[in-house]
Amino acid sequence: MAFQKLSFFKFKPTKNINLINYSNELLNWESDGEKFVINECSYDWMDGYYVFEHTKNETRYNFLEAKVEIIPVKTTSVAKFSISLKDKLIDVWGNKNIVLKLLTTLSIILHNEVIIDNISTDIEDAIYNSFLEKDVSITKVKIEDVIIDDGIIANCSVDLSAYDNYKVILKKYLKNIKQLSFSAFDSDSENKVAFTIFSSGSVVIYKNKEDIEESVLEIIKKICFPKGSEK
What we know:
The chain is an alpha+beta fold. Helix content is 22%, strand content 46%. Strands 1, 2, 3, 4, 5, 6, 7, 8, 9, 10, 11 and 12 form a 12-stranded antiparallel beta sheet that branches. The longest helix is centred in the middle third of the chain and has 14 residues, at 96-109.
């Protein structure tokens, strides 16, 4: 199953901007193997890819010389991103290293006219946000440091799919929850998307962004974005 890390950042322009004006600068940017690809763009919305080519060492066996070699190999990493001026939000799909490179390059191209701040998803907020969404369910919870008897501390994972009212369990062990697994869907129950939120604030989605319906992605954002409507 494919999985991708999803990160949210506040995207606050210091003056009025039009993303269409910046799209050409992004498309023309190409430095040290960096490149932007724009899928869609309007004055307040942008969706695209950040491509970064780099070299990494790979261990290979040379059969002709019967020895192990370390070979430098060029590889390409890709981060998907969307910018919404309306929500003052940018979401980025990719590992930590490429996300940092994307944000740094983006700030340079935008002439530092935008403040980009990290948003760490709060697991307690996510729980209560999910209670407000009818098209999402919490399927599994990981609980740690629960005292069960005579000072015995236990860690466990609970499958919540068998519980009609799992909210009682979540509220009881709210401070001990370290990981939550969700299932979000739209009117077509076939369009389900599984994702996990960790107490560290990380979010992992088990589906490619291109395969997720926009309505389902909006539900995920409402749950992950702290306090939902915060700007």
